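step: validate -> pass
step: tokenize input -> pass
step: predict -> running
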Amino acid sequence: MASCHLQDFSTRLKQITIAHQPVEEKLRDVIRLCLTMYREKPAAFSFVVLNTPSFIPQLPADTVYPLDLIEQIMAAGQRKGIVRRGQPNLLAAIFLGCILRPIIVSQLAEPGALDLIHDDRHQQVILDAAGDTVFPSSLALFLAIAITYFYSRLFSSRQVLRWLLLLPAIYLAADYLENVSIVTMLLSFPTSLSTLAVIANTMFMIKNLSSAVAVMTTVIGLSAWLFQRTRKLSAA
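step: predict -> pass
step: emit ->
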């Protein structure tokens, strides 16, 4: 029975692996699949996925394991420059762990404290947190490049540019500090880490504020650059 459930999970994962869609969407589909299968058959999913090492010796040699398929997605993402550097199997293990740990916590929590079976409002949090563990912050990189491009042409002083580049840097730092705080709280369950919860919430607000200001700064820079360029063309 364990082999049957594992094969079913791996088959559905393989369909995601070979699908013609962006790597980020594939990983999001992996998260959705895990949560969907857990909701459909919580006991079977928990036994098979969380306890796979205990019955590996009894499985056929050609068994395809979920982690192997996720590793393939990671490797494909690295080849395209989308997934951060690192050993693909390690990144796959970290990514899968970010999905499975909330499931474990929900099973150990008091009834109603964290319900992943009937309450789907937590799904977006898991999608964001698991994705952030393997994806570099492409938004921060884009904003830094855009701000550098526009404001280096608008101002001769590099001091202005250096101050503006702090915005995406603050966003990136706050983003990762928030993720580290969330993962630490999950790993420390059932111990209550109230200070860390405050830090995570603070980092969340700083991340949103800095990203909003950075986006506004980029839009202003683009507008000013277009205006300056239009004036030069008109004068010519």
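step: describe -> The longest helix spans residues 194-235.
step: cleanup -> pass
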